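Sample intake sheet
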Amino acid sequence: MPQTPRKQTVFLLGAFLFFTLSLQAQVKSTVDSTSVKIGAQITYHIQVETDSTNLVVFPEGQTFSPLEMIESYDVDTLKNKDKFSLIKKYGLTQFDSGKYTIPRQKIVIGDKTFLTDSVQVEIRNVVVDTTKQLYDIKPMIAVEKSGSKWLQYLLITLVILGVVAFLLYWFIWRQKPLSEEEKIALLPPYDRAKLALKTLDESHYLEHENLKDYYSDLTFIIRKYLDEKVYDRALESTTDELISHLNLLKEGNQVDLSQDDIKKLESILKRADLVKFAKSAPDIELAKLDRKTIDLEIDHVKEALPEPSEEEKLLDEKYREEQERKKKRKKVWLTVGISVFLLLATLTGFSLKYGFAYVKDTIIGHSSKELLEGEWVTSQYGIPPVTITTPKVLKRTTPELPEEMAQKMQLTQFSYGSLIDGFQLVVATTKLNNQSQGQGQQQQPEIDVKQALEGSLKMFEAAGVQNIITKNETFVTPNGAEGVKIFGSMDMPIKGTENFEKGTYVMLGFASQSVVQQIMIFHKEHDVYAEQMVTRILNSVELKEAEK
């Protein structure tokens, strides 16, 4: 049977009420104890059931006054079928005895606002039994300040930099002890050749009749010495080429080497060629004699070499200095390369974890980020007072009203920043004066908060702001004061130019008897840090009713 329009309306209304009640059932608040001693902790629980698509914003700051929040615990998440249960805990305390009410706390779920129930607790005095022994007062102990975390980060950073610097020094810049091979390489060619002959004597080539390796090492010693002191291609030259070049040097009076010495060298080199390539096997005693001959020829070559000129010595010194510079440049480039790699790796890691924009803003600096992470201040402004937590203390900026307006109202205004700075916060309280008529008093007209906020927007239009888009909704503070919230976007003028930039604003308005209280926040669009500040500021707003 089809439903009548009236029944359909009732059905839809019932469904809406059921949906509303189900949303309200998402938020629960409890305390672990309603009666504790002075200074003891009360653990306040807020449990929210929602799905994973909703953003949940819990209270921040000292919103539990008259109780003091001493700790805010991390959110615990439990999954229950298609829902998530979020549990947020706060540690509260009070150091004066009495009965207190924990005010209602505002929870934002998605685009909706919920309020917890207020809770009454009792703070009891500690009864002192004077019949028992009293002990001396314990000495004071140092307590870590909440703002000392930056010092911990600084110390950790310094330790990491110190470790990296030590590793770079140890593996790159430290003067390492020379190995035996490096010590030999630093010896002059003559001493190196003599040492190589002693090493050959200690080998067991001749004992095992390994003449091929013996003659290979023996001829390498003399060729290496000639390569360094006489002919720089002695190692790769054939025997005939080497002997021919030695004869040319002798004829040119460049080397005072006798013909007999050249013939002895030629004989040993050719015999070594036969041993290495023709498998010749000379007598062991002849091999020993060739070793002694090479030893003598090294001495003769040294004596035959002319003394180096001052120019040659200078060239050698410059060569050594150039080699040292090359080694130092290599160390510098290696150090720079490793440092740059570690820096890029660190930045990449932090960017993957926190996002590139956050890392960039941390290094370069961002005014909104500095405000967000600075020391926030909770204070009261105006009469009746508006309690609000802000990144900076607001300064009184009450404008001078025309005499006609001053007779009708009293305006107090506190602010921080400006539209040009990209972030502005204003707290204004307007009190309408009662106008007397005879002995009676004129009845004050009802104040339209929305109209007052729209009037404030027109003031910004007069200041050059364009394309203001507005939305509005009801706003409830954590202590239960209800008002109007107007928010949206606008085009803010850029100082010194004819250009505009996109901005976002939020305005709160509250009316009580003859008082209008307004809170206005403006910031640049897409400023994620400013958006977080706005959320934190709005969650901290509390109002005190005007006295009647």
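Comment: The two ends are 58 Å apart (CA to CA). Confidence is low (pLDDT under 50) at residues 1-25, 140-148, 435-442.
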